[in-house]
Amino acid sequence: MSKPTLWRTPTRLSRRLIAAKQPYRCLSCSFRLAQEQAKQDAKTTHFGFENVPESEKESRVGAVFSSVASSYDTMNDLMSLYIHRLWKDRFVRSLNPGLHPTTATTTSSSSPPQPQTLLDIAGGTGDIAFRLLSHATDINNDTMSRVIVSDINPAMLSEGKKRSLETPWAGSERLSWVEANAERLSMLDDASIDLYTVAFGIRNFTNKQAALEEAFRVLKPGGIFACLEFSKVGNRLLNGVYKRWSFGAIPLIGQLVAGDRESYQYLVESIEKFPSQREFVGMIEQAGFMVPEPAWEDLTGGIAAIHRGFKPV
Ligand SMILES: C[S@@+](CC[C@H](N)C(=O)[O-])C[C@H]1O[C@@H](n2cnc3c(N)ncnc32)[C@H](O)[C@@H]1O
């Protein structure tokens, strides 16, 4: 039989002391809290084809975009063979941003139309924001509406600000930049935004549904949610060619041009993990939006798709 050792006695004693000091309820509360924390840690999500704890995804995605920021625009052109520019043009044209004579609303018959506040989420290097402002100004003669570009990644925003110096909106009040997570837009009031856009951003979010609910919160009644994202290709032949290109060529181009194969491997894997067009409509509706028919528009056979939702008035 083993003799009681010196360390056993104080351990038992200290357990008793702790039990005596802490009432039963507190212990069970802390036990529950610990369980909830453990459950939280056990929740996983996709990071490309990998399953990672939800708490890790944001920093892993952050590392990808910090790494690709300086080569992001060149790589977009090479990876998409310049087609992303056409998709973005189509996206913005379909939204017809800015006050236009036929639909401009006034608060009273004597007051002038109110400028719109447009929010480009995950706006990165500004591709959508610059198009929104060009369209509002050149097509709709709207020189007042403004765009807020929001992104979680300071490196991407800094590339965007640099690029903006070559646009007519450099230093203008019509263009502002905000660092924020799309899932928590605490800097924005409820019902303060007319148009919310997100292009090639939402598939990177940890909690996409939370971001959709936040979009619903910040939009005005009648405001529009619009998303341009990679999607599912219907045609088998096109899908075969596209998959060969994305899994074969894109990580390789990433390695040769940006010296970073892994980030581009993540980007193509994250496309695979994004829900189908139909599933994404369900998520938009679940956030409270009304989705008009047709519920989405496929671009290049579904390689990308545009989804829209209206916040009911
Ligand atoms: C593929 S880029 C798209 C950039 C730009 N919208 C475009 O179309 O070129 C994805 C962007 O999403 C941003 N992002 C990722 N997670 C985010 C989050 N939770 N909240 C806001 N932005 C996020 C990244 O920092 C990155 O700038």
TrEMBL record:
Intracellular or extracellular location(s): Mitochondrion inner membrane
Pfam families on file: Ubie_methyltran
Keyword Mitochondrion tagged: yes
Keywords, sorted A to Z: Membrane, Methyltransferase, Mitochondrion, Mitochondrion inner membrane, S-adenosyl-L-methionine, Transferase, Ubiquinone biosynthesis
Annotated SUPFAM superfamilies: S-adenosyl-L-methionine-dependent methyltransferases
Catalytic activity: a 2-methoxy-6-(all-trans-polyprenyl)benzene-1,4-diol + S-adenosyl-L-methionine = a 5-methoxy-2-methyl-3-(all-trans-polyprenyl)benzene-1,4-diol + S-adenosyl-L-homocysteine + H(+)
Biological or metabolic pathway of the protein: Cofactor biosynthesis; ubiquinone biosynthesis
Catalytic class of the enzyme: transferase
Signal peptide start and end residues: none
Amino acids binding S-adenosyl-L-methionine: 125, 151, 181-182
Membrane topology qualifier: Peripheral membrane protein
EC code: 2.1.1.201
Subunit structure: Component of a multi-subunit COQ enzyme complex, composed of at least COQ3, COQ4, COQ5, COQ6, COQ7 and COQ9.
Function recorded in the entry: Methyltransferase required for the conversion of 2-polyprenyl-6-methoxy-1,4-benzoquinol (DDMQH2) to 2-polyprenyl-3-methyl-6-methoxy-1,4-benzoquinol (DMQH2).
Sequence similarity: Belongs to the class I-like SAM-binding methyltransferase superfamily. MenG/UbiE family.
Name of the featured protein: 2-methoxy-6-polyprenyl-1,4-benzoquinol methylase, mitochondrial
